[in-house]
Amino acid sequence: MTTNMIALVTGANKGIGYATARQLGERGMTVLVGARDATRGRDAEGKLRGDGVDARFVSLDVTDEASCAAAAELVEREYGHLDVLVNNAGIVRADGSALPSETTVATLREVYETNVFGVVAVTNAFLPLLRNAPAARIVNVSSEVGSIAVMTDPQGALFALTSVPYPSSKTALNMTTAMYAKELRDTPIKVNAANPGYCATDFNHNSGFRTAEQGAEVSVHLATLPADGPSGQLWGFQMDAGGGYGVLPW
Ligand SMILES: NC(=O)c1ccc[n+]([C@@H]2O[C@H](COP(=O)([O-])OP(=O)(O)OC[C@H]3O[C@@H](n4cnc5c(N)ncnc54)[C@H](OP(=O)(O)O)[C@@H]3O)[C@@H](O)[C@H]2O)c1
């Protein structure tokens, strides 16, 4: 089954992004496989096509505004609209023992370039195309470690974590999500943040207890919300609530 829907997933060459591309493709969408490395992107495109997904590699480094603009021009030229944008590309870095007092500004900048500035760059480059779609969905792949409420709960499972760069980048991403949702509240576009849960990928040397496919389910849910679905929420895996899916506190 094909739909005429076009989805772009950033960082789709592996991990949760790849699984998201596959699941959106299985729902009949044409999936644009955003990747910063052409070889890795084309390999992913080939694997997805082998599985019957209408996948197409799109060169996209989210930290490079010229790359974002070129990708948006390509999508404009070829399709004229974008139904789903999944801002999935993300990196994690820490200094020393991951204490605030050991954090370097260089590391903070590097993480924010991808996890925060990159999301704004990609979203703004594609917003005209998202507005051209009947009811676009934007999914920002965040994390429960970006939730100040979760991270400061003394009874919570994440209370021991102290790192600044990655968690605070996701906090900034959560606020970014909420503000885009506010700007777009009178349009059919919905903007939500996804919490995939701790998934085994290269990101964490495959130490996660969930699979990339399970993590992708969260992004796909938010990418396919019905017209009466929510906007401006952090939604996904709830570790402290016993592992179901639901809304997480900011
Ligand atoms: N895994 C988890 O437990 C977990 C939990 C919560 C949230 N998340 C979030 O889920 C998202 C995906 O993570 P993952 O676990 O799937 O990680 P991953 O396996 O390391 O994949 C990350 C993807 O992002 C891409 N990427 C990094 N920098 C990029 C850039 N500048 N431009 C374009 N693509 C870039 C990578 O491309 P290359 O192959 O070229 O490096 C790769 O495709 C991230 O936003 C992460 O923060 C993950």
TrEMBL record:
InterPro entries: CBR1-like, NAD(P)-bd_dom_sf, SDR_fam. The keyword Oxidoreductase applies. Signal peptide: none annotated. Keywords: NADP, Oxidoreductase. GO terms for molecular function: oxidoreductase activity, acting on the CH-OH group of donors, NAD or NADP as acceptor. One of its GO terms (cellular component) is membrane. The keyword Oxidoreductase applies. This is NAD(P)-dependent dehydrogenase, short-chain alcohol dehydrogenase family. It comes from Micromonospora avicenniae.
